[in-house]
From TrEMBL:
<keyword id="KW-0816">Tricarboxylic acid cycle</keyword>
<dbReference type="InterPro" id="IPR027477">
    <property type="entry name" value="Succ_DH/fumarate_Rdtase_cat_sf"/>
</dbReference>
<protein>
    <recommendedName>
        <fullName>Succinate dehydrogenase flavoprotein subunit</fullName>
        <ecNumber>1.3.5.1</ecNumber>
    </recommendedName>
</protein>
<keyword id="KW-0274">FAD</keyword>
<keyword id="KW-0285">Flavoprotein</keyword>
<feature type="domain" description="FAD-dependent oxidoreductase 2 FAD-binding">
    <location>
        <begin position="6"/>
        <end position="397"/>
    </location>
</feature>
<dbReference type="InterPro" id="IPR011281">
    <property type="entry name" value="Succ_DH_flav_su_fwd"/>
</dbReference>
<feature type="domain" description="Fumarate reductase/succinate dehydrogenase flavoprotein-like C-terminal">
    <location>
        <begin position="451"/>
        <end position="583"/>
    </location>
</feature>
<keyword id="KW-0813">Transport</keyword>
<dbReference type="InterPro" id="IPR015939">
    <property type="entry name" value="Fum_Rdtase/Succ_DH_flav-like_C"/>
</dbReference>
<dbReference type="InterPro" id="IPR037099">
    <property type="entry name" value="Fum_R/Succ_DH_flav-like_C_sf"/>
</dbReference>
<dbReference type="InterPro" id="IPR030664">
    <property type="entry name" value="SdhA/FrdA/AprA"/>
</dbReference>
<dbReference type="InterPro" id="IPR036188">
    <property type="entry name" value="FAD/NAD-bd_sf"/>
</dbReference>
<keyword id="KW-0472">Membrane</keyword>
<dbReference type="InterPro" id="IPR003952">
    <property type="entry name" value="FRD_SDH_FAD_BS"/>
</dbReference>
<dbReference type="Pfam" id="PF02910">
    <property type="entry name" value="Succ_DH_flav_C"/>
</dbReference>
<keyword id="KW-0560">Oxidoreductase</keyword>
Length: 583
């Protein structure tokens, strides 16, 4: 079945909905393809807030937000992206408010703001209230607001469709191929411009805050075409996930005054970040927690978690501003934050890397400025390199709406200027052959067992702390798992709602993302941001102040070709930092 729209958006989270809305406002025909019903997208899991220098509680400026973003990204952040972001997010937050997003309010009626890890005033001198929030359901409110606006603007939605191929020929994207879950049929979507906004790949790890749908589909498809993925070695482990489950415990819980404690009841962050303690950036807090666990001060049966303590806070704060996480702790752990310490542990949370783009969302084909005409990306799937080596809390929701808006605008502008390019003779051929291989395989391997081995080994070998020996071992493990994947069989012969078939396909995507992530991490012989190597403790700006570009070796499926891209610098360097350092 064939469809034709000026702009196709893949993904209906915050970035996809913002991109679709702005493309539709520009007067072009827009369709949004989503694995899920839009308001169930993973943006809804973002609890704590969206950072913007509104200055509603105390003095704040976009320049301070830009600095915190660059410093938080350990100076691998592209500073032109950080500047655009810190300026634009102020306007976008007010725009969301005018769309009807129900932000929490100050007594004067302004948008309420609270502290968040890594956000400071006056270039690092003290913490600042910058996070705009809707209780602890900010992401959920963004989804609801943007979905309503898209319905109003006439965006057409194709829900429960899984994109299986990008139609790229002669350096131009002509559309996508998608599998309809309810019928088992393949559909070709012909477009002038395509925007990719389908999220990350956190399901590559055993303990993760990511939804089951986040399997890096479009990153893998892009990579399989010999196109690069940028900075895949930088993966953020959020310091606070519910123990054993990985369900996100918002950073707002520490912004409201939550204290991390070890098995001795000690507030251990005073040892690692004496100035701002529990409000240090996520990479620092995650490593601090893991160090406490390694040194025998963990809690629980397996001694692999620590506590977050809210018991000193008023009940109305816990049940008002932190209502969702309070309910989750009570439901899943049987622990009441009002009176109990809550068990948490670091959880795989966010990919700083992804499909490389320019400031307008245009997808890059190399590290020298080459691009794919008509193809854009935004959100966690993309890498405009706003986050560098480590993303600050609240900057993810800001990234979605700022760069989603830019991608939508520029994709629509492009679509108005061009005609539809011709499609290949048989656009569904590759997708059809892959499904037939999975359906027709007589192999004995099971996708679920391979996925379980992948997730456990990635957690152990490419997790919070890394070293060359373990990552070299992981390279070989992934090669073996990819070989076994060729023998995966699907026992369900049905075409309608064949979730076993979909999960087998998604495993292939996860293996690709893990392959390029591991190779990129092994190649970077320094510690920076979320990438912490036990065999290379020092940060090395002389050799590694550059972005990694990982390409699939199309002549050898087990190899990754590494290239590089320059970091965009614009005034902030380590010499700019106040002394002594605040962390």
């Amino acid at each position: 079945m064939h469809h034709r729209y000026d702009v196709i958006v893949v993904g209906a989270g915050g970035a996809g909905l913002m991109a679709a809305l702005y493309a539709a406002k520009a007067g072009v025909s827009v369709a949004c393809i989503s694995k899920l019903y839009p308001t169930r997208s993973h943006t809804g899991a973002a609890q704590g807030g969206i950072g913007a220098a509104l200055g509603n509680i105390q003095e704040d400026h976009w320049e301070w937000h830009m600095f915190d973003t660059v410093k938080g990204g350990d100076y691998l952040t592209d500073q032109d992206a950080a500047e655009v972001f810190a300026k634009d997010i102020i306007d976008v937050v007010y725009e969301l408010e005018h769309m009807g997003l129900p932000f929490s309010r100050t007594p004067e009626g302004k948008i309420a703001q609270r502290k968040f890890g890594g956000h400071t005033r006056d270039f690092g001198k003290a913490a600042v209230e910058r996070s705009c929030y809707a209780q602890d359901r900010t992401g959920h409110m963004i989804l609801q607001t943007l979905y309503q606006q898209n319905v109003k603007a006439g965006t057409l939605f194709f829900n429960e469709f899984h994109v299986t191929d990008l139609l790229i020929e002669d350096g131009r994207c002509r559309g996508v191929v998608a599998y309809e879950l309810s019928t088992g049929e393949l559909h070709t979507f012909h477009a002038k411009a395509v925007i990719l906004a389908a999220g990350g790949y956190g399901r590559a790890f055993k303990i993760t805050s990511n939804a089951l749908t986040l399997t890096g589909d479009l990153m893998s498809i892009y990579y399989r075409k010999g196109l690069p993925l940028e900075d895949m070695e930088f993966y953020q482990f959020h310091p606070t996930g519910l123990a054993k489950l990985g369900i996100l415990v918002t950073e707002g819980i520490r912004g409201e005054g939550g204290i991390l404690r070890n098995s001795n009841g000690e507030r251990f962050m005073e040892r690692y970040a004496p100035t701002i303690k529990d409000l240090a950036p996520r990479d620092i807090v995650s490593r601090s927690i893991y160090t406490e666990i390694r040194e025998g001060r963990g809690i629980g049966r397996d001694k692999d978690a620590v506590h977050i303590d809210l018991t000193h806070l008023p009940r109305e704060v816990i049940e008002g501003k932190l209502a969702e996480i309070t309910d989750l702790a009570r439901t899943y752990l049987g622990q009441d934050p009002v009176k109990d310490l809550v068990a948490i542990q670091p959880t795989a949370h966010y990919a700083m890397g992804g499909i490389p783009t320019d400031l307008n969302g245009l997808c890059l084909s190399d590290g020298n400025g080459g691009s794919i005409e008509g193809l854009y990306a935004a959100g966690e799937q993309a890498c405009v390199s706003l986050h560098g080596a480590n993303r600050l809390g609240t900057n993810s929701l800001g990234d979605l709406v700022v760069f989603g808006r830019r991608a939508g605008r520029y994709a629509a502008e492009y679509a108005k200027q061009v005609e539809y390019a011709e499609l290949p003779d048989d656009p569904e051929k590759e997708s059809r052959e892959e499904f037939e291989r999975l359906r027709g395989s007589s192999g004995k391997d099971n996708a679920a067992s391979i996925r379980k081995e992948l997730q456990a080994s990635m957690m152990n070998n490419v997790g919070i702390f890394r070293n060359g020996t373990d990552m070299a071992k992981q390279v070989e493990i992934i090669k073996e798992l990819k070989t076994r994947y060729q023998n995966v069989s699907v026992s369900d012969p049905s075409r309608k709602y064949n979730t076993e078939l979909i999960e087998a396909m998604e495993l292939g995507f996860l293996l690709d993302c893990s392959e390029v992530m591991t190779a990129s991490a092994l190649n970077r012989t320094e510690s920076r941001g979320a990438h912490d190597r036990e065999d290379y403790h020092a940060r090395d700006d002389q050799n590694w102040l550059k972005h990694t570009m990982g390409y699939k070796d199309l002549n050898n499926s087990g190899n990754v070709i590494i290239g590089y891209k320059d970091v965009a610098l614009k005034g902030f360097t380590r010499s700019f930092e106040p002394k002594p350092r605040v962390y």
